Amino acid sequence: MHKDKYASGESYSHKDRYVSENSTFQSGDQSLFNDNTQDFTSNDTYDDTIGDETFGDDTFSLECDTKRSPRSIMQFRFSNLSEGTSFGEGSVVIKQQVAWGCIGLSALQFAILTTQVLLCGVAALSINPTLGPYPDAFSEWGGKNTYLLVEGQQYFRFITPVFLHVGYLHFLVNAFFQLENCAYLEREWGFFQWISIYLISGFGSCFAASAIEPNVIGVCSSGALMGLFGARISQAILWTFFETKADYIGQGSIIFERLGSTVCSAAVVFCLTFLTYIDWAGHLGGLCTGFLVGFIVFSHAIREKETRTTMKLFGFFGLLLGGIILWVILFHYAYYDEELADACNYFRNLYTEGYSCECQAFS
Q1: CB of 17 closer than 8 Å to CB of 74
Q2: 89 domain-assigned
């Protein structure tokens, strides 16, 4: 039987993928599992203690999704609980055991930053106080540079700044939240949903930063992180304040109770804007983008079709309106210094002494 991988309070739900090895299923003298064949009997009696609630002599049926891949863990659906029993409250469904996406993303970002430092050198603390390369490296490696994005038509800069960090202090803060809070989100949402929200939020972050702060060269990795927090907030709102389908009952209240941790994490990450080369517009843009994307992604759990459609449309038109406004600002009203065309000369003029350009090979 699969081992229980959850921490306390996260082990079970009415639709969960795991059954604790400490759980006891009984039906007279017949075991629920028949010789490890994963066959089940229905209307069996379950007697176990889960979280803060005890279920004894409650009748339910078990259904097994036999169409799932042999390599995936069996999914169990508990239903037909006796009246008055709230099975699975205090738990959230987890889709994967290890957050490989967060681990891989953090490793990639660390490798990029380390390569920058090795090839471009470590800037003086007066230039880059976060223990990172000289700032012209950000532009040379695809960072936010509005002049090159618009005049040079380098549209890849809408997404590449997401993978860059200003320095090791910046990376450590982001990596901490990626491997803690955001890793849990990946396990709950699944990799593809998680990475989609991350990249779309990163795009929104770069878009907003380029339009609102066009004369600042920088990075947008923290903005993408803010997008994940924004999506979590919208998920908590949708699953708590609207009636959800049977499969999601009880999950919204738990997510909402834990929302304080998400808000605190977002506040700490937002404080990074006080560091150089990290602007507030990118953080705010990523947060708003993730929040609106969350209305599209997580509204599927709402029971009423009309409300579900309304929430999806709210998220879609919110993104569309925001995109149109930022597009008009960026390509028609934003003023950007032509000196940004050559990031090395730009920063040499900005820092009259002690500035070294070591990354011109990437021009």
Answers
A1: yes
A2: no
